[in-house]
Give the backbone structure.
Amino acid sequence: MENMIEVKGLTKTFKSYKKGKGLSGTIKTLFKREVTEIEAVKDISFNIRPGEIIGYIGANGAGKSTTIKMMTGILNPTSGFVKVDGRVPYEKRQENAKHIGVVFGQKTQLWWDLPVGETFAILKEVYQVPDAFYAEQMKYFDEIFELSEFMGQTVRTLSLGQRMRADLAASMLHNPKVLFLDEPTIGLDVMVKERIRKAIKDMNKRYGTTILLTTHDMSDIEELCHRIIIIDKGQLLYDGGIDTIRRDFGYERKIVFDLRYDDAEVVGAILQQMRDEIQGCTPENMTYTLSESQLSVIFNRNEINISSIMNYVLQHLNVIDFSVKDMDIEAIVKRF
Ligand SMILES: Nc1ncnc2c1ncn2[C@@H]1O[C@H](COP(=O)(O)OP(=O)(O)OP(=O)(O)O)[C@@H](O)[C@H]1O
Ligand SMILES: [Mg+2]
């Protein structure tokens, strides 16, 4: 098959009805409702081939989850269509569910009151997973996600990291052809994130699973995705390799300094002086902002040595703390 996922002219408009204020407003609303429309997804098209791992990224409210809900059959599009593995998910929701796996990081897909172990036993029946394959999968999940740690606990008692590990294992149990992972690493520590990334890579390698994931973590993208699709305000902004993005935007670094004071004039004068003294420190290559007592210096690391900026600021300003940040997704979207 040519494409595992086909999205064409996909559009979703939410209608919400404004309610007037107070009792008279409520009564008025009964007769004449004021409609506001939110165009969450606007005319998006893309194709995904079998075995691809795609990063579906964008700022908060860009329309990522809404797209995934249409791809998994939870929502109907307003116009346009989606095909996953040859099926239209919102027309054949049950049939589609057998062939896909879904994780919404913000909300568990598991039964809140059931022990984790029972949950897997039920899913085995629902998906009719053969005994031998079930045993193999559970052994693997236990190695990578350490499920036995909490197999006897009900889902509601799990910590966020444990819950996400259980959710991921559940989404992968029946070896779906396609995995939709909506923020599978949100709020997790580095160790758990690493395990989740490894499992995603393993599934893809072992079974050729097609994976679409959303994330706000640039390291997820760097480590997993060969191709990214960026959307903003419901519209497609970029569809292509990660290399182009890294080449065009990966040179930027940001250092955030916590200062002991917030005198904009003093800080401004010293940064002006820094421009004169450090080579390459032109306004194109270095900008800064001061908010309260936090100074952010954004610079092009190809043109300016990070240590010269660090040295200068540490010598001339009273710094309490600092952190160095990689380029983040929101900043990249803003640049487009
Ligand atoms: N059921 C709904 N009714 C009305 N508006 C909705 C509904 N679901 C989503 N929206 C709106 O659609 C837009 C896109 O939301 P969506 O959840 O798809 O964004 P997102 O890209 O997943 O954001 P985030 O990164 O915060 O998860 C937002 O403006 C949101 O408020
Ligand atoms: Mg979302």
Q: What stands out?
A: Residues 110 and 175 are 17 Å apart (CA to CA). Residues 64-65, 182 surround magnesium ion (ligand 2) (CB under 6 Å).
